[in-house]
Amino acid sequence: MLGFQIQSEYIWYQHTASRLPAGVVVIKKIEQQTALRPWSYLHPQTLRFIAADVANASANNLNPDVKLVDLYFFERRAQARRVPQVVHCRQHAQADFSAQLQIPEGDTAVNGSWKKLSSDDPLLTALCSNEEHN
User: Fold this and answer.
1) DSSP 8-class letter at 126
2) Do residues 37 and 80 lie in contact, with contact meaning Cβ atoms separated by under 8 Å?
3) In terms of C-beta distances under 8 Å and separation of at least 24 residues, what long-range contacts does 17-24 make, across chains too?
4) In Å, how far from its chain's centre is CA 29?
5) How far is CA 32 from the centre of its chain?
6) 83: which strand partners?
7) Confidence (pTM)
8) Contact 47/17 with Cβ under 8 angstroms?
9) For 27-65, how does the pLDDT look when each residue is reduced to its tens digit (9 = 90+)?
10) Does residue 105 sit in helix, strand or coil?
């Protein structure tokens, strides 16, 4: 029984990720090690991951460098959560989608509501890779 449980925890990520629709890309997987599962120190388990629905992302009408994308947070034994995010491809920034979020026009700098991302952030790579200026 214990062996089956361990195997199920190790194959959960591969099984769940393989069932994602086309255009939904895994951008981060979180591996865990815990004393309650000593074998996880030899081979960490992926019990959470984040995926982005790149295929259905939409560009802003006023500033095409700004895109709205749904992120999905998956966790073993929990229901997936969808979190809409806004990404500025040129300025390498991300913000929570809300009616109060100010979308910068043109090359106007983003305000404090935005979180800066590194130029090699997996979300930027997945979402903005077709952008010539990224």
Assistant:
1) H
2) no
3) 17/49, 17/51, 20/51, 21/55, 22/55, 23/53, 23/54, 23/55, 23/56, 24/51, 24/52, 24/53, 24/54, 24/55, 24/72
4) 9
5) 18
6) 71
7) 0.85
8) no
9) 999 988 888 888 778 888 899 999 999 999 999 988 899
10) coil
